[in-house]
Amino acid sequence: MTNANDRLGPPERLVRTLGAESADEVARAWLAGLPARVGEYLERWELTPERVQTPGGRSGMVVLVHGADGTPAALKLCVPDGSAVREHAALAHWNGRGAVRVLRADPEAGVLLLERLHGDISLRSLAEAKAQLEAAGVLQRLWSPPADGHAFPGVAAHTAALADALRGYREEPWAADVRGVLDEALELRDALADGGGETPSLLHGEYHQGSVLAADRVPWLAVGPRPLVGERAYDLAWLAGDRVDTLLAAPGAGAAARRRVAKLADSLEVDAERLRGWTVFRAVEAGTRELAAGARPRGELLLEFAGLL
Hints:
This protein is α+β, with helices and mostly antiparallel strands. It has 13 helices and 10 strands. It has a 5-stranded antiparallel sheet with strand order 1-2-3-5-4, with helices on both faces. Strands 6-8-9 form a 3-stranded antiparallel sheet. Strand 4 and strand 5 form a beta hairpin.
């Protein structure tokens, strides 16, 4: 198993993110112990490794494996911060309906064994119109009433924490030029936090075209949920801002952005104005966070998109 550990180290993107001095100490320690953790679960669950999925994510690692019976699978290891517990609970609730299926799990340790999807083929491989159509279809299967006694956070509480962080960013000197759009985003969030009287649904939480992968048992399945419970317009907002770089580079970007929001709202029967508001808030929150981290081009792109709406 030692040889497997030597060649199944974390991908470069994960090392850059979690190995930085600014990264959380717990995350750095987890990263350092990751090869041994991979080896432990390969042995425990009788898995034969193929390779690490690259470029991979920024908060976890996926190893493509085969089970003892030859079944292909994906071993996902996440920082044990509780996110895998919530991800496992959501995937178990969906039980393969619109989302990847869990084969085995040790969620408290941040380890999930998932059915193998085609990790290199997401909805972003399709033309824009087709991708949005397929994304809407998958999302309709995910939206469902949460189980009684669930432990998923609500949209109101989750966005309250994000809004508090935005208020802190607002006072930074580098935020002087964007305070107007930050204030608008905060006002929108406060107005939307009541949920609009909609019966809460279990939401994916980070739904976009890149989080929907090609599969064998059905054409497309969602992965990587950050589940929340709340109104559907919140879940749709990130999808409304997909491929924002391409959108902003085209003539008439503002009109195209507003048409996209209206079309998505109509196709999934959510209130268009609430979808617009959540899209603005999520774009501003993410854009400001990128600016704070020094990723100015991405941050400015998201804030420009928000301004168009």
